[in-house]
């Protein structure tokens, strides 16, 4: 059980990844992303999750350079994730995409490189490219996002490398038990995107009542629920008080009853697209 913001989980290839990080989806390129990332690192975050599709890799890269210098950190103390976008999937185009991302980030390597969505007919070729990127040291670990069980099974039929991680939409209204169980069996870490369902779950009365019991916010309760379920989590925020508040989840533990109460809230309700039915 992680009990510090910088505690890590060992991925299936031995790479250590922080349990808790900052997501920068929908964070604007320029001052907003610069400030958000630097604030997070200043307050002890070590994991930053971006993607080519977020169009803020340059800002993230600049923030990393400035934060390293200002906080006296080394590059290897940070864990940086980015992703190949759907339009770039395929073997050669993915190899070009990682170079473009590294150039924007100003990095020699990323810690984790992910396939953003399971584009039909393309993700296997894309995975071959990720295996080459991994062999070449441009990514310390490789994985996928938004893969259902059948996508993972299909991918692993031909894969040389088992994905280190599957990043999926996951929150109390979409608890993804089947995928979590499958990944646990295969040694694939699970990471939650949109862990607060874009703010929906923090309005939940059950979660609020549990928060009152511990003197914690509804958001802190949900993020703690992630960690106690062995789910890596990357809440997004651009506000300093929220960035620090989100991370204030290592000084309490939810009881088994409260964990069960949150588990029971599942509605299989998505805030984002279904990976079996998307058109982008």
Automatic annotation (TrEMBL):
Listed InterPro entries: AKR (IPR020471), AKR5G (IPR044500), Aldo/ket_reductase_CS (IPR018170), NAD(P)_OxRdtase_dom_sf (IPR036812), NADP_OxRdtase_dom (IPR023210)
Residues noted as binding substrate in the record, renumbered to the chain: 116
Active site positions: 54
Residue ranges of domain NADP-dependent oxidoreductase in the record: 21-266
Gene3D superfamilies: NADP-dependent oxidoreductase domain (3.20.20.100)
GO molecular function, one term: oxidoreductase activity, acting on the CH-OH group of donors, NAD or NADP as acceptor
Stored CDD domains: AKR_AKR5G1-3
Lowers pKa of active site Tyr, annotated site positions: 83
Key words of the record: NADP, Oxidoreductase
Transmembrane parts of this sequence: none
Superkingdom assignment: Bacteria
Pfam family, one: Aldo_ket_red
UniProt-listed PANTHER family: 2,5-DIKETO-D-GLUCONIC ACID REDUCTASE (PTHR43827), NADP-DEPENDENT OXIDOREDUCTASE DOMAIN-CONTAINING PROTEIN (PTHR43827:SF3)
Family: Belongs to the aldo/keto reductase family.
Protein name per the record: Aldo/keto reductase
Record organism: Paenibacillus zeisoli
Lineage: Bacteria, Bacillati, Bacillota, Bacilli, Bacillales
